[in-house]
């Protein structure tokens, strides 16, 4: 059948679009058609005795054919036979005659296109023969690796010398992608087509070699697995016959399964170490000494929550809301916590890795009972993360944190890893309680491990001795608590940012009791609001006279003590309601604990109100002095530390200088008669400080006292006793003194001024630097009740104090 029988090209003929690969000239192939557009095109060709154009679809079959939906190249051929099938399809026997290309679409229904033949370009026969030789060599290689390659095709290629016919024969046999087939199909240059085909064959050969290699490996692996399976089954049957329990094998299989499920989430060295130990365990006799140790190790390590993290988005609003809900006052700590999480939220919103922020570790410090740990609880609640609390008080063994090496009997992971296991997440809130009370012993210094745990530069690769691989702690939010930051080693202090949680004022304690403590304790004791009435005056008296603390822990205990007695009265005596007033308060509470002595209303000589900081908040210390006839000796009592003893000596020297300079006037009538009657004696012999021995005492001698803030108080009491001038009882003071009479700044100002307020002091003298720097931290009610006076020199202090 010749193309010339159908007229000349270009020619307008119908199109059948097939989803299969390209057809080639001189092929006689069956085609099955089922869509309406193609059937219309076939009927049109049969009715008009026309050729038909078979094109290949670019994507899946579509009902509405467009020029863009099929490749603009295909085979022009004729329909040899058409058969209608019972299922509605049409079967064609199609004979390809020539390659053609679409010039334009002339009709849509049925789809008609104007087609022209792809005319081959002239070629140089010697070059084509050389390339054909290479092609035949590649085809032999392909046939050697592809068992499905038709062997008679090699003979046909050898006998044929038409390059286009050879290309079409090979292209119809090998698997080509549509885009590759199109490039080969549309090309008119014989040499270019041959080179393209050679490239495609090389790709096919490489792919088949790789496929063969993979199949070989898979086959070998399957043989190994089958072999292991049969051996294990035989071993199970042998153990069953011997009466050996096979439960251990099932456990080991479970370990392997769990390890594989965690493989993607855990570090490579962790996977390698755990798998190594499971392999050892599987080979070990169950009664051997090390089997139990290894099994414990595997079980511990598989409990570590690799890859499990809290997905709750950070929200500074939720953190702030939770802090305000759980805590009254504490303005500064709340602000700093909000700032800390604002940075983390901003990094999260901007898609940055929080590891790059190298955030600081927060440390809440302050007296007991002021809410340091409960602040951490509120943070964990706001973030919807588990809370892990690690008590460090008295910890001496470094292995408690880092884990024991598995060579020791009873070895366990460290508390940090155990905390992660308990939390079941890798990013909990971890509270390191009482970090200032970590001990040191011959078993090591735990603070050295804390340096690594709390350093954002290092804790992404924290190594636990028991685990023997690195664990990432960078996502854990560490919060430390301490009472006295002076007890924390300097390198460890450098890792943390400190947030002071100070003492509460009486009014703040009252609000905390009303809003938090009483409702919480009522719920714990099963009492209803209508059954107990605790009046505000009774609550105030309880705060002032029955507790001695900076926080509210003892206040909670007192409230619980009252409510226990109320519960007993309701049950035993059948009372409907129990009222607590200042009159009947002693019936519910055992004994009065005066927190701070009230200030004396009478001015006295040789008694000064000093302000001190203690571990339970501020206190007012009455420093007393007496003079005894003598030669100027100084005696100190009251369990004073070295710093306070030095302060007393400095204070005496400063007062001596002031007396010598005439800034403190001494009534000559007060000098002893013996000193006045002598003539010709040196001038200093007549000085009053050489005529008396001084005795300074700070009451409650059983309580050790030390600290650099009593200098001006000691100088004032010495000046008072030597000059016989009274001290204003309504004035209290704090400040250190230099030898030249300068007043230095001190710490703990808030606690000291709160103590002065509680004691009824009207006026407080503080160093000027503290007045300029720390006054904004003082509660408003304290500043309203106290007149705070800044001083820079001892002369100003004496002018304010002495009458």
TrEMBL record:
Residues 13-205 form the Lon N-terminal domain. Residues 602-803 form the Lon proteolytic domain. It is an enzyme of class 3 (hydrolase). It is found in: Cytoplasm. GO terms for molecular function: ATP binding; ATP hydrolysis activity; ATP-dependent peptidase activity; sequence-specific DNA binding; serine-type endopeptidase activity. Its EC number is 3.4.21.53. Induction: By heat shock. Its main location: cytoplasm. It catalyses: Hydrolysis of proteins in presence of ATP. The active site is at residues 709, 752. One of its GO terms (biological process) is cellular response to heat. Keywords: ATP-binding, Cytoplasm, Hydrolase, Nucleotide-binding, Protease, Serine protease, Stress response. Belongs to the peptidase S16 family. This is Lon protease. It comes from Wolinella succinogenes (strain ATCC 29543 / DSM 1740 / CCUG 13145 / JCM 31913 / LMG 7466 / NCTC 11488 / FDC 602W).
């Amino acid at each position: 059948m010749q193309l010339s029988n159908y007229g000349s090209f270009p020619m307008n003929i119908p199109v059948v679009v097939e989803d299969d690969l390209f057809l080639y000239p001189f092929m006689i192939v069956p085609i099955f058609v089922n869509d309406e557009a193609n059937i219309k095109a076939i009927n049109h060709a049969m009715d008009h005795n026309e050729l038909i154009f078979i094109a290949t679809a670019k994507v899946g079959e579509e009902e509405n054919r467009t020029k863009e939906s099929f490749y603009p190249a295909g085979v022009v051929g004729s329909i040899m036979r058409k058969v209608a099938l019972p299922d509605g399809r049409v079967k064609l026997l199609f004979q390809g005659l020539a390659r053609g290309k679409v010039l334009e679409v002339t009709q849509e229904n049925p789809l008609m296109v104007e087609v022209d033949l792809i005319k081959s370009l002239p070629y140089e026969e010697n070059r084509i023969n050389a390339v054909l030789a290479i092609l035949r060599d590649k085809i032999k290689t392909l046939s050697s690796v592809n068992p499905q390659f038709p062997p008679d095709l090699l003979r046909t290629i050898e006998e044929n010398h038409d390059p286009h016919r050879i290309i079409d024969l090979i292209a119809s046999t090998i698997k080509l992608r549509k885009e590759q087939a199109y490039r080969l199909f549309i090309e008119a240059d014989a040499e270019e087509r041959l080179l393209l085909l050679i490239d495609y064959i090389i790709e096919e050969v490489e792919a088949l070699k790789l496929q063969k290699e993979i199949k070989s490996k898979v086959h070998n692996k399957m043989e190994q697995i089958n072999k292991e399976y049969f051996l294990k089954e035989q071993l199970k049957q042998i153990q069953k016959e011997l009466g050996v329990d096979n439960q251990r094998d099932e456990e080991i299989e479970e370990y392997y399964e769990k390890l594989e499920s965690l493989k993607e989430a855990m570090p490579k060295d962790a996977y390698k170490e755990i798998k190594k130990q499971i392999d050892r365990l599987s080979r070990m006799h169950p009664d051997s000494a090390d089997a139990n140790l290894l099994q414990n190790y595997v079980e511990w390590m598989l409990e570590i929550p690799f890859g499990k993290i809290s997905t709750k988005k950070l929200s500074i609003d939720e953190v702030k809301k939770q802090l305000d809900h759980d805590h009254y006052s504490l303005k500064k700590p709340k602000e700093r916590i909000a700032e800390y999480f604002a940075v983390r939220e901003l990094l999260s919103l901007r898609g940055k890795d929080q590891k790059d922020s190298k955030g600081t570790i927060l440390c809440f410090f302050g007296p007991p009972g002021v809410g340091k740990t409960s602040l951490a609880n509120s943070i964990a609640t706001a973030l919807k993360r588990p809370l892990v609390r690690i008590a460090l008080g008295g910890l001496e063994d470094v292995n408690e944190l880092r884990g024991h090496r598995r060579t020791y009997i009873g070895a366990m992971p460290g508390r940090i890893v155990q905390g992660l296991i308990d939390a079941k997440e890798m990013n909990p809130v971890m509270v390191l309680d009482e970090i200032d009370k970590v001990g040191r012993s011959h078993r090591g210094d735990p603070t050295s491990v804390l340096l690594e745990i709390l350093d954002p530069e290092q804790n992404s690769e924290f190594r636990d001795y028991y685990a023997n691989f690195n664990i990432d702690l960078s996502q854990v939010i560490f919060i430390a608590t301490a009472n006295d930051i002076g007890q924390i080693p300097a390198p460890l202090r450098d890792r943390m940012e400190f947030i002071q949680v100070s003492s509460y004022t009486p009014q703040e304690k009252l609000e905390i009791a009303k809003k938090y403590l009483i409702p919480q304790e009522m719920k714990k004791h099963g009492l209803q609001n209508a059954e107990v009435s605790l009046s505000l005056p009774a609550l105030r008296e309880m705060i002032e006279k029955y507790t001695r603390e900076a926080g509210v822990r003892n206040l909670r205990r007192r409230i619980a003590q009252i409510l226990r007695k109320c519960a007993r009265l309701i049950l035993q005596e059948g009372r409907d309601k129990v009222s607590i007033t200042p009159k009947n308060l002693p019936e519910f509470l055992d004994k009065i604990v005066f927190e701070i002595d009230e200030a004396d209303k009478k001015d006295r000589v040789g008694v000064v109100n000093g302000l001190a900081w203690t571990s339970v908040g501020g206190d007012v210390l009455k420093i007393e002095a007496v003079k005894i006839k003598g030669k100027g000796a100084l005696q100190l009592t009251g369990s004073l530390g070295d710093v306070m003893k030095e302060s007393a000596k400095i204070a005496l020297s400063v007062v001596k200088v002031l007396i010598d300079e005439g800034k403190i006037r001494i009534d000559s009538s007060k000098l002893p008669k013996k000193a006045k009657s002598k003539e010709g004696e040196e001038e200093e012999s007549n000085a009053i400080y050489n005529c008396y021995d001084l005795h300074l005492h700070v009451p409650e001698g059983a309580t050790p006292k030390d600290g650099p803030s009593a200098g001006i108080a000691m100088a004032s009491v010495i000046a008072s006793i030597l000059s016989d001038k009274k001290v204003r009882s309504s004035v209290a003071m704090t400040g250190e003194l230099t030898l030249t009479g300068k007043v230095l700044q001190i710490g703990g100002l808030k606690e000291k001024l709160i103590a002065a307020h509680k004691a009824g002091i009207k006026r407080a003298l503080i160093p000027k630097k503290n007045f300029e720097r720390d006054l904004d931290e003082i509660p408003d009610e304290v500043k309203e009740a106290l007149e705070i006076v800044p001083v820079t020199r001892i002369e100003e202090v004496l002018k304010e104090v002495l009458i």
